[in-house]
Design brief:
Elements: E1 3-7, E2 10-14, E3 19-22, H1 23-44, H2 51-70, H3 80-85, H4 88-95, H5 100-126, H6 130-138, H7 147-172, E4 178-185, E5 188-196, E6 211-215, H8 216-219, H9 225-232, H10 239-248, E7 255-262, E8 265-273, E9 277-281, E10 287-290, E11 294-298, E12 310-312
Parallel strand pairs: 5-12, 6-11
Antiparallel strand pairs: 1-2, 2-3, 4-5, 4-9, 6-12, 7-8, 8-11, 9-10
Length: 321
């Protein structure tokens, strides 16, 4: 029968073999692993997360795991409830999900990334024999300190999960669907019809928020007269005049410059602004309130028959944090 002895920050397993597991090593490896996984998830969902929050989430994840392994009173939590419940805390602190549904999606994506990372590591080590290659190159035993292998696995897992996530978004997005939207800004609100357009790949370069393209005629009431005049004179792409107008306006902190490229305009620039919120209303009258988006202002018609006045970014329906 197996038994274990806790001695000086380690667990010694006795019969039929003896292994010492050191708490500091387990904590460090889990800290590194959790940080990489949280970072990969943040890149996949395109959510800007600070280094401090990523590190805090990884620290808590590693701490909870070590408590379950090394502290007898916490070992009773090493069950299905503990395995599911405890990881929720680092996810809530790191990503601050707005609903239970989003938290569950993050939980699934987090563990999917962890499984992919582990699978990539095993494949690299056994099938490609990369463990021996790295060991010879760096003169240390990778089985004792697998940091390089971990890094390579993280890179491969990131691209693998990102590809799978892109496929999921592509096949679950209802392209061409029309929605009603309500844009709120500085105490005002406008309504518009919006088309879900998978070709809209614009992001705000500053915040990495998805951009909803809206006709100038729909949002002009939000803009100060100096910027309205630039659009009326078709000079919204004149950077010198635009910069001068932005500096003088009281809403300059909320204005954005969004680069884009298209046929006939390889280095275009959209004026945009960050709204207070955008409410997207579906045909069954269910609605989604978006706060982490940017409105890009387009100075022409988006639809010849005026069926819609805005183009929705496909990512707004896959924002799980």
């Amino acid at each position: 029968m197996n038994s274990s002895i806790i001695n000086g920050g380690s667990i010694t397993m006795e019969r039929p073999f003896q292994i010492e597991i050191y708490a500091d090593v387990v904590f460090f490896l889990n800290l590194v692993m959790d940080y990489f996984i949280l970072w990969i998830v943040s890149k996949i969902i395109k959510k800007k997360v600070s280094f401090k929050r990523l590190l805090l989430g990884a620290f808590l994840g590693a701490l909870f795991y070590c408590l379950m392994i090394f502290i007898p009173i916490f070992r009773t939590t090493y069950n299905l409830i503990g395995i599911i419940g405890l990881p929720m805390i680092p996810l809530m602190i790191t990503y601050k999900p707005q609903s239970l549904k989003n938290l569950i999606k993050l939980f699934i994506l987090f563990h999917g990334t962890a499984f992919a990372l582990g699978g990539a590591g095993i494949a690299l080590f056994y099938y490609l024999n990369i463990g021996k290659v790295i060991q010879d190159a760096f003169q240390f035993k990778i089985e004792n300190f697998p940091i390089v292998l971990l890094f390579v696995s993280c890179v491969l897992s990131y691209f693998f999960i990102k590809t799978i996530w892109s496929w999921i978004r592509k096949y679950t997005t209802k392209e061409g669907t029309l929605y009603r939207i309500k844009i709120s800004f500085n105490g005002q609100q406008i309504d518009a019809s919006a088309l879900l357009d998978t070709g809209n790949a614009l992001y705000d370069p500053f915040s990495q928020s998805p951009v909803i393209v809206v006709e100038f005629s729909s949002v002009k009431a939000f803009l100060p007269e100096s910027i309205q005049k630039l659009f009326y004179d078709n000079k919204e792409n004149d950077l010198s005049l635009l910069t001068q107008s932005i500096i003088q306006t009281p809403i300059k902190a909320k204005l954005r410059m969004i680069p884009f490229s298209s046929l006939g305009m390889p280095n275009g620039m959209l004026v945009g602004f960050r709204p207070d919120q955008v409410e997207v209303i579906e045909h069954d009258n269910t609605s989604t309130v978006l706060k982490d988006v940017v409105i890009g202002i387009y100075n022409q018609r988006l639809s010849k028959d005026n069926r819609y006045q805005a183009l929705l970014h496909p990512d707004i329906f896959h924002n799980i944090a």
